[in-house]
Amino acid sequence: MKRLTLKHWTAGFLPLILFLPTFETNISANEWTLRQEKGDLKVYTRANADSGIKEVRITTLMETSQSGLMAALCDVPAYLDWVYKCSEARRLETVSEQEFFYYTKSDFPFPASDRDLIVHSWHWQDNHGVIHSRSSARPDYLPDNKGVVRIREFNSTWKISPVGPDKVSIEYEVKTNPGGSLPAWVINLGITSGPVKTMESLAAMVKDSRYRNAPVPAYFRH
Q: Which regions of the chain are under pLDDT 70?
């Protein structure tokens, strides 16, 4: 059996936590440190005042429309196709076209227990045509599952700006704690490895006709 290094071990489960839908914050760029760059995609981290686990910020450009990207982000069962190590994903409640609750489960490498997360997500478009989305953990929405650690701390944001008819600029930020007994330094070791794979998978998926031909939501401003 191939032995996993700490870096590979942490990279194996962090992407799910880092990429669950949510949106918007105004943070000074001086507070973030660039950790990884691959083409248009840049990954930043900064210290978290509430814990030793770093916050993550990702910026990139993507060949898709705002409606196509939002269709993908709202298609919860399809998270299995692009969120790395996601083993289960389903909607729990649809409040409106712009607000819903969902459940995800992440496959953590042995000997750690799998994690699950319940999220309340809502989104809107501002007067400048920018899409904002926020997501936060709702751990008590369902009873805990035996043998699975419930993630209780999670907040994320997306800011999706139009660059052209078929291109968007993305700013994504997340602050979370996977819980359990994992030390912060182990989590931080692989915190920038998974996001690149996950975002690349999302960029490939939005080219599918399901999202490329997605109808424009009623709340979009024309």
A: 1-30, 180-194, 222
Extract the tokens encoding 68: 């196509």
Q: Based on the structure, what is the number of domains in the chain? A: 1
- Which CATH number characterizes residue 40's domain? 3.30.530.20
Residue 32, classed as helix, strand or coil, is coil
Domain assignment of residue 80, yes or no: yes
The whole-model pTM stands at 0.83
Residue type for 166, please?
A: D
Asked if residue 220 belongs to a domain, the reply is: no
Please report where in the chains the tokens 């194996």 appear, as a residue.
12
Cα(114)–Cα(205) distance, rounded to whole angstroms?
Answer: 25
Q: What is the DSSP letter of 199?
A: H
pLDDT tens profile 64-94: 999 999 999 999 999 999 988 899 999 999 9
